[in-house]
From TrEMBL:
Signal peptide: none annotated. SMART domains: Lactamase_B. It comes from the Bacteria. GO terms for molecular function: hydrolase activity; metal ion binding. This is Glyoxylase-like metal-dependent hydrolase (Beta-lactamase superfamily II). Residues 61-248 form the Metallo-beta-lactamase domain. It comes from Amaricoccus macauensis. Belongs to the metallo-beta-lactamase superfamily. Keywords: Hydrolase, Metal-binding, Zinc.
Amino acid sequence: MRQLASGAGFARYALGDVTVIALHDGYVDLPAGRLRKPDGQPFGPDLPEEVCLVNGRLRLSVNAFLIVNQGRHILIDTGASDAWEPTMGGLLASLDAAGVVREAIATVALTHTHEDHVHGLVAPGGADAFPRLERLLVPDAELARFDACERLARFRARREPFADGADIGPGVRAVAARGHEVGHSAFEVESAGETLLVWGDIVHVPAVQFARPDLSWELDADQAEARAIRLVMLRRASRPGCHVAGAHLEFPGIGVVRDAGGRFVYTPLGEGAA
């Protein structure tokens, strides 16, 4: 996998015969106490020194990923639009910068239904963000959460459930990754012997959770399950020929993972790198 180009809010990659475009929706600053110790308790003055705070808060990048294969455009997650902090909502501008027209996106697949992954279905101002949307794929265990959101009411008749192993599109398969949310899912993209694991919210604080996968996140629906699946996904991502794309890894959020004996090392993929 190699980076082909980058610009304001986007980075374009080649994965075999597939094009992958990382899209920046922005960032959100959250309380440092969201990072949790293995026993589920928040850190205090003993916050790991690797964690850099911005004005005393954790800064999380918010990323989405567009998969283009055989003329089909599959968008994984949609950002927050104007439904959360004003530091988010840049996804559509990032698409424009990448030269992708919104009408080209016919399939949206969600890793889960948290605000910063789903609310971008509605553009700032209230219009449909993707006017030619044909398939809206929601994890089957989260249909009730999706349907309970009034902002997304117009999409209820169009959403389709998917389960572990579902084929999302050419070379794209769903992988169960529950823990952060009841239906949290990853997507594995394969082409010409290369793999990209788009894993949603497996890691929130990359500065420390690769080396310490036992550290959890306050908003994980099941912290024990989230810790267990994090380890599973890190091992999966560290296979030869595999790359990872993370919703909260520092933009563009694509890189490689190396297993250093239970502690993992993440290296961002730079321009021209394979």
